[in-house]
Write a structure and sequence with these properties.
three-stranded antiparallel β-sheet, single chain, 149 residues, five-stranded mixed β-sheet, mainly beta, Immunoglobulin-like
Length: 149
């Protein structure tokens, strides 16, 4: 099973595995300033640094979305446990960790720092991505002489 993320500029879809170890519960209070948030629940012990939230725009097929430009949030690195929760508010605030209680693990409260709410448009959806690699530029880039400069 997988989710197809279809680029609005490409004709082919890419099928990638569904993330099951970290559950995207949903968006709560969409369009409400200082209350709009994405909720995640940890299902398995994991390093949260391997995941990111990306904003997407729904496409015609149900369950499909195209990633939007400049719209990724990375929580940061650290081990989290089953039954921990994340509230990612789209506005600004102070990052907080609420200790576990009898019914729930820790609650991590994060803030994206976006100036406006995001989910008032029902076509915009959060996408949970598992990251598996990255490359960072290490020196001044050079193009082969045969390519246009």
């Amino acid at each position: 099973m997988g989710i197809s993320f279809k680029s609005e500029t490409l004709t082919n879809s890419t099928l990638i595995p569904v993330v099951t170890e970290l559950r995207l519960v949903g968006v709560f209070e969409p369009g409400v300033p200082n209350r709009e948030r994405i909720v995640l629940k940890v299902e398995t012990r994991l390093d949260i640094g391997m995941y990111a939230i990306v904003l997407g725009r729904r496409v015609q097929q149900v369950g499909h979305a195209a990633p939007m430009t400049d719209s990724m949030y990375w929580i940061g690195s650290g081990t989290v446990e089953p039954n921990d929760w994340f509230y990612l508010f789209t506005g600004s605030g102070t990052r907080t960790i609420i200790p576990p209680d009898v019914d729930h693990g820790k609650l991590f409260v994060e803030f994206w720092g976006r100036p406006l709410t995001v989910f008032q448009d029902g076509q915009i959806v959060p996408m949970l991505w598992r990251l598996s690699g990255a490359t960072v530029e290490r020196s001044a880039p050079e193009l082969p002489a045969s390519l246009p400069q």
